[in-house]
Structure formats: structure tokens, C-alpha cells
Write a structure and sequence with these properties.
517 residues, alpha/beta, Immunoglobulin-like, 9-stranded parallel beta sheet, 4-stranded antiparallel beta sheet, 13 helices, 17% strand
Length: 517
């Protein structure tokens, strides 16, 4: 063999070796990105934390911000948007029960101009990107401060006896059966009129305790059933919160069985010093004893479909250590879904705690969540922190290493476990792949999203693996800006509960000599 031929052969071998290593690296990255994983992000509207950026924007500006938020999170691998639709006994949608939110227009009761329905817009745009929409309600908050003015048609003007002041805020009473009925009607109004995937509550049930100030509910304790709980006002409060959860669960499922009901509680249920089942923490407030929310009981009894405990602490926190709590919540799924709330908002190079100064410690929390079998994903609080100038590298690392491929939301077989029929007639139209779907009379079997897979020339097996997953979409076509890459394309369908169909018949894209193996 001549020197020149030998050199060419060595160069080819090096190129093949480098290409092979590149493929292995890409496959390794994709393999550590689970195919099934809840990846949510909270979008808060109260006090304009996330959206709108400020009150009083025009309708066009409001919509532009929605699209910017959704496009960014889609690239980050997010598959569920948790939008605050009822921030403070008002609505970001047209409602006959409550006024327009002050956080939309700057004035409670005033609709956006020119008129449009923000909730409808959010849902349509979220679904078109293949992401779930979770409608986030705050059940009891009315005013963030006593000086806030309510619109003339606010229900508090008609029923002031439904409310109480605590600290500088005003709340609906969690003890009043009329409040339960009103809240049920507010939630059902959204469930009936909008195509939401879930109803979501956070940690605000009874207000967080203010030192030196008792809750003003002693008269209600007497009026609303305190005789069933003599000298046990704490149990009575938990009973009140239990009741609204039961009422809502029954109402939601009777209206639309596929709509999920989820809770994002404070990160500590109880300390072990208070209960043998509690976590090895020393939190000053807990769900059970401070907020009167027995969240793991709701999970155990099947009243809710998922929990996202807010584990917004670092790993060496003296009172509430992240890893300790992640392992604790891992053990209390009771067959339902458990995700973990993460806190990118705490990341800052100026933080007084070293574990919040570097993003690597935040990513270790994602690694831990993925390592525990009882945890099915995570949610970020909150959206706006992914747009901070000092956190631009966070999204880049998420896209490159932690979520390089889309993920499907975990299934919920206790609601439905029957997969839909696969799409058919995959075909090329210009630079797009399009397809047809089967009509289904049963809403549970109707396709919600579509999953496109691409297989390389020479592959002998066509499996629904994450490394072959190209896109999840709610549209009926997928467009390729630079032309459709060569390969074999197959598609599956997801129903409302993310059950996945079989793969479609293959669509070959490439040279005529390209052959299925």
C-alpha cells in the first residue's frame, strides 16, 4: 500500500471514529433525557411576576409576550404551562362570576383593548406547540392589601360575610359552605368553557401564619360545625380544606373526566418531630399544621391526580434540605403522580449561599429527581427567570444537555389507559410532513398531540425511543425551514391522557435507492 493511500485510509478512519464518537455522545445525552417526564413552568399573573410584563398593555402587546414566552419554553423542552388564570378573585378571561383582573388592564373590571380573550389565546397557542395547559387558581385571596379597590360588581360587595381580613390582606373564608359552592362554580365555568388539561392549586389554603395574630374564625367555628370538633379547631380547619378538595374533584370529573386536578403544596408536609411519618426537617410552618392542608391524604384517597411540592431550598439547608425532601416525597405517591417544584428564581451570582451561585448545583437537583423512581418530573418557578440576562446560560445548558429532546407527559392510567389509533397517510407537502387522523366519538380516545420519529438509513428496528423523537406538536403538520432531512419518518398519536398509539406506516424521505431494512 502506497504512502498516500495509507494516509487517506488513516484520515478516513479518524473521521469515522470522530463521527462515531459524536453519535455516541448525542445518544448518551438523549438517553439521559427521559422520554416520559413532566416538565412544567409556572406563569404567574399576580403582581405581574411573569405575564403581562406590566398592566395596561395593548392586546397586541399581550399576545406578543405570550408567543415569546411559549416559544422560549418550547425550546427548553417544557411540556406543560401552568398559568395563573384567577390571581385574586378576578379573572384573566371574560366571566359572569368575577371581574376582569387588574393585572391585565391595570384596573379591575376592565377588559383588554382591543377586546380579546387572553385565556383562549393562551390555550390555543400552548396546545399548538404540543404542550399541556394547566389552569392555576388561587382559591381564597381577594386583596393583596386592604387599600386595593374592588370593581363595583365584585361579589364581596354582595356577601361581605363570606370574607375576613388577616394581616394586610382580605380572603374568602375556607369554612363557609357558600364559598365552597361559589369556588366550585368559578372552576367549573372554566372547565366547561375552555379546553384545559388540568385544574391547578398552589399552596395557599388557609393563610400563612402571622406571628402574634390569630386567624379571625372563632365565630365561624361555632357557626359552621365546630360542635363536631370540640376544642379541636385545627381539625375543623383541615376538614374545611378537605371538603373543598373533595367538592372540586367530584365536580371536575363529572364535567370532564379527562381534566386532571393537581396541587402544588408547600414543600414540607410535617416534621418528624410532629409525626412519625414526617420528614427529617425542622420547618417553622408545614402543610398539615400551618396551612391545614393534609395533601398526602388527598393523594392517598385519590382526590387529586398529582402533587408538585415546592422544594425551593438548597441541598444543605439546615431546616429543609432539598435531597432529604426529594427522597421523602418519593415515598408518598400512593400510585398517583409526584413531580417536584424547582427554584431557578433563587439562582444568583450575588446569593449569600454558595449553592445558589452556580447553576451546576441547580442541575444536580434535576439529576436527583430523575434518579428517584417515585418522581415523574419537575416544574420551574417561574417563567420570567429564564429571561434574566444573568441566567441566559441556564436555558442553553437545559437545551444542550438536560432536555435535548422533547418529553411526553407521564400517563395517568387511573383516569384512562387506552391508546388512540395511529395517524395515517403521512405525506410530504412542500417542506412539511402532513397526515390524517381518525375521527373518534369518545373524547378520551381523541388525539390531542402528535409525535414524530425519524430513523436513519440502515436502522433495522423502528422503536419509539427518545433518541429518534423529533417533535411533539398539536398541529396537523410539521414544517422544516431548511427542507426535510433524509430518513424514515413515522408518527404516533397521544390522547388527552398522553397514552401513545402505535406507529404509522413509514414515510421515506431521500434518494430512490433508500431502502427499509
Amino acid at each position: 500500500m502506497g504512502i498516500k493511500r495509507l494516509k487517506k485510509k488513516i484520515i478516513r478512519m479518524r473521521v469515522l471514529f470522530i463521527a462515531g464518537m459524536f453519535v455516541l455522545v448525542i445518544q448518551a445525552l438523549y438517553c439521559q433525557s427521559p422520554k416520559r417526564e413532566f416538565r412544567g413552568v409556572w406563569v404567574s399573573t399576580v403582581a405581574n411576576i411573569d405575564w403581562p410584563s406590566r398592566p395596561g398593555l395593548s392586546s397586541g402587546q399581550l399576545q406578543e409576550e405570550v408567543l415569546r414566552i411559549l416559544d422560549h419554553h418550547k425550546l427548553n423542552g417544557i411540556n406543560a404551562i401552568i398559568l395563573q388564570v384567577r390571581p385574586a378573585a378576578d379573572a384573566i378571561y371574560p366571566s359572569e362570576l368575577e371581574p376582569w383582573s387588574r393585572y391585565i388592564s391595570g384596573q379591575q373590571g376592565k377588559a383588554p383593548e382591543p377586546y380579546f380573550d387572553p385565556l383562549k389565546f393562551w390555550i390555543e397557542e400552548t396546545h399548538s406547540r404540543g404542550m399541556e395547559f394547566h389552569a392555576w387558581f388561587n382559591p381564597y385571596r381577594i386583596k393583596l392589601n386592604l387599600q386595593e379597590e374592588l370593581s363595583n360588581d365584585h361579589i364581596m360587595h354582595r356577601y361581605p360575610e363570606w370574607t375576613f381580613d388577616y394581616g394586610s390582606r382580605v380572603y374568602f373564608s375556607p369554612a363557609n359552605p357558600q364559598v365552597w359552592e361559589f369556588l366550585k362554580n368559578v372552576v367549573l365555568d372554566v372547565v366547561r368553557r375552555y379546553d384545559v388539561d388540568a385544574v391547578h392549586f398552589d399552596d395557599y389554603f388557609y393563610p400563612y401564619t402571622i406571628q402574634g395574630e390569630d386567624l379571625p374564625d372563632s365565630a365561624e367555628f361555632v357557626k359552621f360545625g365546630g360542635h363536631y370538633f370540640p376544642d379541636r379547631i385545627e381539625e375543623w380547619r383541615r376538614h374545611n380544606v378537605d371538603t373543598i378538595i373533595q367538592v372540586l374533584q367530584t365536580a371536575i370529573k363529572s364535567q370532564k373526566p379527562w381534566v386532571k386536578f393537581g396541587i402544588s403544596p408547600f414543600g414540607v408536609w410535617r416534621n418528624r418531630t410532629e409525626d412519625p411519618l414526617g420528614s427529617e426537617t425542622s420547618a417553622g410552618i408545614t402543610n398539615f399544621d400551618g396551612l391545614y392542608a393534609d395533601v398526602i391524604s388527598w393523594q392517598r384517597k385519590g382526590w387529586i391526580d398529582y402533587l408538585i411540592p415546592q422544594l425551593y431550598w438548597r441541598d444543605d439547608h439546615p431546616a429543609a434540605d432539598f435531597s432529604t425532601l426529594a427522597y421523602w416525597w418519593n415515598d408518598f405517591g400512593y400510585g398517583r403522580s409526584v413531580y417536584v417544584g424547582l427554584a431557578p428564581y433563587r439562582l444568583s451570582k450575588k446569593s449569600e449561599h454558595r449553592l445558589w451561585r452556580k447553576e451546576k448545583f441547580f442541575f444536580r437537583q434535576i439529576d436527583m429527581v430523575r434518579s428517584l423512581e417515585g418522581l415523574d418530573g419537575f416544574g420551574y418557578f417561574s417563567s420570567k427567570h429564564f429571561f434574566r440576562k444573568d441566567l441566559q446560560s441556564l436555558s442553553r445548558k437545559i437545551r444542550r444537555k438536560y432536555c435535548p429532546a422533547p418529553a411526553l407527559v407521564p400517563v395517568m392510567p387511573w383516569i384512562d389507559a387506552v391508546a388512540p389509533r395511529e395517524p395515517f397517510n403521512l405525506r410530504i407537502e412542500g417542506d412539511s410532513i402532513v397526515w390524517d387522523v381518525h375521527d373518534e366519538a369518545d373524547e378520551l380516545n381523541r388525539t390531542r398531540f402528535y409525535v414524530l420519529y425519524r430513523f436513519l438509513p440502515g436502522e433495522k428496528r423502528y422503536l419509539k425511543q427518545v433518541e429518534n423523537l423529533v417533535e411533539v406538536t398539536g398541529e396537523r403538520e410539521i414544517h422544516f425551514d431548511k427542507g426535510i432531512p433524509e430518513g424514515i419518518y413515522r408518527m404516533s398519536a397521544l390522547d388527552r391522557l398522553n397514552n401513545e398509539s402505535q406507529l404509522s406506516v413509514p414515510l421515506m424521505v431521500g434518494a430512490p435507492s433508500f431502502r427499509l431494512k
